[in-house]
Amino acid sequence: xxxxxxxxxxxxxxxxxxxxxxxxxxxxxxxxxxxxxxxxxxxxxxxxxxxxxxxxxxxxxxxxxxxxxxxxxxxxxxxxxxxxxxxxxxxxxxxxxxxxxxxxxxxxxxxxxxxxxxxxxxxxxxxxxxxxxxxxxxxxxxxxxxxxxxxxxxxxxxxxxxxxxxxxxxxxxxxxxxxxxxxxxxxxxxxxxxxxxxxxxxxxxxxxxxxxxxxxxxxxxxxxxxxxxxxxxxxxxxxxxxxxxxxxxxxxxxxxxxxxxxxxxxxxxxxxxxxxxxxxxxxxxxxxxxxxxxxxxxxxxxxxxxxxxxxxxxxxxxxxxxxxxxxxxxxxxxxxxxxxxxxxxxxxxxxxxxxxxxxxxxxxxxxxxxxxxxxxxxxxxxxxxx
Length: 386
Hints:
Layout: H1 2-48, E1 60-62, E2 66-68, H2 72-80, H3 88-104, H4 111-125, H5 136-141, H6 146-152, H7 157-170, E3 175-179, E4 186-192, E5 195-199, H8 201-204, H9 217-220, H10 241-245, E6 247-249, H11 255-264, E7 269-274, H12 283-297, E8 307-315, E9 321-329, H13 339-352, H14 367-385
Parallel strand pairs: 6-7
Antiparallel strand pairs: 1-2, 3-4, 4-5, 7-9, 8-9
């Protein structure tokens, strides 16, 4: 028994040593695996151009398809007069951008007026080429950069944002492209007089002007999300649409006449403050006034089809209520043609498809058909705008 005990005692250190070696080996493998995983993640972040921890402005992939690309070399070449260093494509981009700025900008404008002019061009004046028909594959590949936006007049959110940034940088105004935390949307941050403002041209190109123009962080956060630690805080209010365009009306009961004046002038947005300040006991009446007005307008012509109305309450720097009234027009995107050409086209379609029928506005329809048509349109419209 003594010999056996001695044998066991001599083996025990060996076993402990082996266990220790195994533990060290497992730890090393785990450490190597962790380092490899971290390296793989870093490589992935580098590949997609987005550092999850700190954020990036350029080389970020949006919606798994479009990229935010820097165009600072183009604006720098313009400002420095060194266009010869640019590629032919970049020279063409600069030429198109310069032509537009020469048309909409003059030397007497303030930075705010220059910014507003560029915003309005992108949201209102940017239209398809006169030919209507476009080269689809070329448009799709360039909808995320100023070259494609200016050449083909078609853009996704990234295209609007990078083109606005190019305009601003050519005008000597500091501008950044900001993107959402989930990498599905992008817009701009613009610096005016040392304060930043959010500007989302893409979201306002649907017919609602100034809805996403010169917002501070609080306003932008209602519909946007982003990395607040990486991008500079937008705290400006001086150049918001409300601050620049608000008018004073007597009280909440003057709202209908004020809105009527907006619509008569075909304004898409208006902001008003109140000479008789809205007290807490007036809030319910004020809210009901705007809600009822918006709903009622859609029961009369010409606002009962393609228009959408919305009132938004906010407070100014003094804590007093102001009302922003939005008018959205969806409209009909079908090209306008004369009746003879329309009839010729429809007859060719009818010759090929038996039983097909065509709908034109202001024509008489049976009640049954109108009801069926309206039901279909409600469903179709809901899906298209969803």
